[in-house]
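Feature request, filed as a ticket because there's no other form

It would be nice if the structure record came with a short human-readable summary line next to the tokens. Right now we just get the raw output. Example of a typical job, pasted below so the devs can see what we mean:
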Amino acid sequence: MNRLAHETSPYLLQHADNPVDWWPWSAEAFTAAREAGRPVLLSVGYSSCHWCHVMAHESFEDQATADYLNEHFVNIKVDREERPDVDAVYMEAVQAATGQGGWPMTVFLTPDAEPFYFGTYFPPAPRHGMPSFRQVLEGVQQAWSTRRDEVGEVAGKIVRDLSQREISHQGTRPPGEQELAQALLGLTREYDPQRGGFGGAPKFPPSMVLEFLLRHHARTGAEGALQMARDTCERMARGGMYDQLGGGFARYSVDRDWVVPHFEKMLYDNALLCRVYAHLWRATGSGLARRVALETADFLVRELHTDEGGFASALDADSDDGTGRNVEGAYYVWTSEQLGTVLGEDDGRLAARYFGVTDEGTFEHGQSVLQLPHTDEVFDTERIASVRSRLLRERAGRPAPGRDDKVVAAWNGLAIAALAETGAYFDRPDLTEAALGAADLLVRVHLDEHGRLARTSKDGRVGPNAGVLEDYADVAEGFLALASVTGEGVWLDFAGLLLDHVLARFTDPESGALYDTASDAEALIRRPQDPTDNATPSGWSAAAGALLSYAAHTGSEPHRTAAERALGVVQALGPRVPRFVGWGLAVAEALLDGPREVAIVGADPTGEASVALHRTALLATAPGAVVAYGVPGGDEFPLLAGRPLVGGEPTAYVCRDFTCDAPTTDPDRLRTALNG
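Raw output as currently delivered:
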């Protein structure tokens, strides 16, 4: 029975024609398991996941395997990007039981949704010490048939253990100078001075940590923090993880040297990194940072923009290699011979040297990932531009990777913030317009009449799943960035609406702790809660940041208090595991700096003098500074109230907690006030 055909998830739709009798996650699926007396197979993945595709081809498209599954199990397929709450709860169980996790995630449940056996990818035949998937199925079925009471006891114990994992390391106050200095020291110990980044292989882009380092340098002048950020950004941008032809970053590097990426391109990585490189340019004037920020923004708009105005979730790692086989990286890699064929002999040799393409290859089968390995050699820029253009045109003729077209609210919030700021910094109104279009889609499609946010949409049709904490927080962050850039106070109002839900439905009123799901959300075996960053800022720290910015805009004490209470966990974790609370540390930097509140008033906000002050304020490095921009006494922003022109000229006010320094009409004085 094809129950997945009408889902909005591209991942579920990929499995709609499997011979497996899949159910979406639903109460009806567990009722069916209860009535049939069968265990549940829960399979969790996402559309751009390489090993998810492999297991699907090997097992879920195999008729004999499907027949066995259909006879003995109720089978549920979940898109982890649509249901991060389901994924988080069972991934915690997998990691606790096996010491590792990953996708596809394979979990066997009782009809009461209690887990009792775990794994990730299982091969079709025994391999490298792993049992085959069929062996696992038969073992689980035998245990269920002959030792059901024992299975139930195991499942009950797992659920009890999970229920005791509430966040108990809540600090008593936000991080102060000492904790932030300790966090910086901890990062210095884990830093790779030869290659940039932190730790060994695989290396992930440390986006949130880089934001902390830039803010820490801006507040304290610590050169070591800036050097770690600058050098890591340069290494990533010169490596194979960055698409040297089309812009944008792959998910991570499989090696320590940033040479070979895992080729999937995610919206969230590129939104976060676009913003990091824009902020690095703002701090240093780096030409490389400017180029990468703009190329990444252009990649987002060119390749992930949807017809409805939002941004799609991802591009697959795999594509047709020209022989009908789906191969990871096929779209992106080159051989020396291919370069010569496309460019001619001379330009082919130039391209090979410039991009680090070797006869032996840096990837597989003599193929190379394009890099920029030569930092000390001068190349003819016009000739290189021609080479890059011709290679990009040739690559466009290859079979393209698949695109996951669903619009995820949280990740679009990150993209809105990145594109709004990048557009403002580099005088690219088209990028700001793209941010506005995505914000409009979220309001029209994802937001209901009660201000509740849906997690996803596809083709303009809202998905069935409620937004989680990161959706409310990241969308609020995007709206607040739009408000500062555009001077349109409606985005401040929408952010406030979302953050009121954070206070009312996601926050423990006693401790100030935050939950990933709302108090009235579907009950799972436990209520997920995680303050640590992963590929994106945790909902917890993202909420703290948005609450703090909103309080700076409005003077709202409840929002500021909630932000400070949420940052207590960063005070506890920051000195111990700074790599995993990077965004929380960045928010703490803003709190220590004020954050500063900047009001720009002008009789004509589009006039040259007003625009100059506004741009100066946006380019300030003061951590977490908020900017209100409009006419004197304008009611769109509370910061504009009681802020008159000085001498009839456009005027800037720099304040902390609504107490302001002397106003200025001079952009240079404003720059000094904000960057000092």
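Something like this underneath would help us a lot:
The mean pLDDT is 94.
Residues 11 and 383 are 42 Å apart (CA to CA).
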